[in-house]
Backbone:
């Protein structure tokens, strides 16, 4: 069964940093759109960032509340993508999910319903 494996969540103080990793198990990220989503307690899941992986570089997308603080990146050699989170705030507390979908054009999509593969989720807690 094809799946994504996440790691890197945890407890961090406000202003701190964390890096989340997501690696596919059973397939290679080539001509894929990948993204990060999060779900806070009592709230619906929301998109955080997305990017395309293909032969043409694509600009990533970020929701306004994380711009300048979060960075999505990919490492083709490791077949892994990341979410670097800095200047974390208590309102960033959520379960974070990575996602991937095969797109021949590798155009980024941050629409949840476009994604076929999901990680298991990792808890990020920002608290003093």
Residues:
């Amino acid at each position: 069964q094809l799946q994504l494996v996440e790691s890197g969540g945890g407890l961090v103080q406000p202003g701190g940093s964390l890096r989340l990793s997501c690696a596919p198990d059973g397939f290679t990220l080539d001509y894929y759109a990948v993204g990060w989503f999060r779900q806070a307690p009592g709230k619906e899941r929301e998109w955080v960032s997305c990017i395309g992986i293909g032969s043409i570089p694509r600009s990533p997308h970020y929701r306004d509340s994380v711009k300048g603080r979060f960075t999505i990146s990919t490492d083709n050699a490791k077949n892994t993508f990341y979410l670097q989170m800095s200047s974390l705030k208590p309102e960033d507390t959520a379960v974070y999910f990575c996602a991937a979908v095969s797109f021949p054009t590798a155009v980024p999509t941050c629409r949840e319903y476009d994604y076929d593969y999901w990680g298991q989720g990792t808890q990020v807690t920002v608290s003093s």
Observations:
- The first strand starts at residue 3 and ends at 7.
- The chain has a mean pLDDT of 94.
- The CA atoms of residues 91 and 126 lie 8 Å apart.
